[in-house]
Design goal:
The protein is an alpha+beta fold. The protein folds into two domains: 2-96 and 211-246, no CATH class; 102-200, no CATH class. The chain contains five helices and 15 strands. It has helices at 13-16, 76-85, 123-127, 154-161, 226-246; strands at residues 2-6, 21-30, 36-44, 59-65, 71-72, 74-75, 90-96, 102-106, 112-119, 133-134, 149-152, 171-174, 177-184, 197-200, 212-220. The strands form three sheets. Strands 1, 4, 5, 6, 7 and 15 form a six-stranded antiparallel β-sheet that branches. A six-stranded mixed beta barrel has the order 8-9-14-11-13-12. The chain is globular. The model is unreliable at 9-49 (pLDDT under 50).
Length: 248
């Protein structure tokens, strides 16, 4: 199994569903050891409007490809290793889990089931998008024991809170646990698909779990290229394999 840079096709399914958006291939590079770099640009098929992310063409997804075909999700230990070591070509590497488990939200009124995505603290920064109100997560909020913060989507803000101007700082309850609303995303932001809220994913630097359950998105530095990024990931991949061998 190796690592390769993949476009955000899988990650941006929600955006593709938006009216007028299509996926257009720009180029594909074959870069040794069977690794592929496929860079795609999401554009509006009618108006050619760019995605609502800063320099979206520099966003890539890092995935593991199995020699027999197909890709696999990334383990927490791999993600943490990559984010610590692949710093020359990438300005940031973030992770998230695909929308799955819902949470029970209580914030006055009747409880509501909402769709949640857990993300690393730098998730919104790497994507290059800013909240409409408040802030995204800050460093350390994705570490065990950190304060429980939540960013809410525009739809939930409108539906549940009536677009309340002072919603930031409000305390809500998710599955019985208190969380503080720290930000509201703009209506144009729907990533991953259908997410109502985003909470920090707890990542322990000492984790050794090899179970893959994360998706990883990265931003290539403006002064670097995809070939250099792929070459760095090849090296980092081998370094992590060597570390695994040493640890048994």
């Amino acid at each position: 199994m190796d690592v390769f840079l993949q476009d955000l096709r899988r990650a941006a399914r929600a955006l593709v569903k938006a009216p007028g958006f299509t996926v257009a291939a720009v180029f594909t590079l074959a870069l040794g050891i069977g690794a592929n770099v496929a860079i795609f640009s999401l554009i509006n098929g009618l108006l050619l409007r760019p995605l609502p992310y800063a320099d979206a063409d520099r966003l890539v997804q890092l995935v593991q490809r199995h020699p027999k075909g197909g890709t696999r999700a990334v383990s927490a230990s791999k993600y943490l290793f990559w984010s610590d070591h692949a710093t020359r070509s990438f300005s940031g590497i973030a992770t998230y889990d695909d929308v799955g488990a819902g949470l029970n939200l209580s914030a006055g009124g009747s409880p509501e089931r909402v769709i949640a995505s857990r993300v690393s603290a730098n998730f919104f920064t790497v994507l290059g998008t800013r909240p409409l109100a408040g802030r995204g997560f800050v460093g350390g909020e994705d570490r065990p024991g950190a304060r429980k913060a939540v960013v809410i989507g525009y739809g939930l803000w409108e539906r549940r809170f009536g677009r309340m101007a002072d919603v930031v700082g409000t305390e809500v309850t998710l599955d019985g646990q208190p969380y503080t609303v720290v930000g509201v995303m703009p209506s144009s932001f729907r990533f991953p698909a259908n997410a109502d809220i985003w909470t920090p994913i707890e990542l322990n630097p000492g984790v050794t779990d090899r179970t893959g359950y994360l998706d990883v998105v990265a931003r290539v530095r403006g002064d670097g290229g995809m070939e250099a990024a792929q070459a760095e990931m090849d090296v980092v991949w081998r370094q992590h394999l060597a570390q695994d061998d040493e640890n048994g």
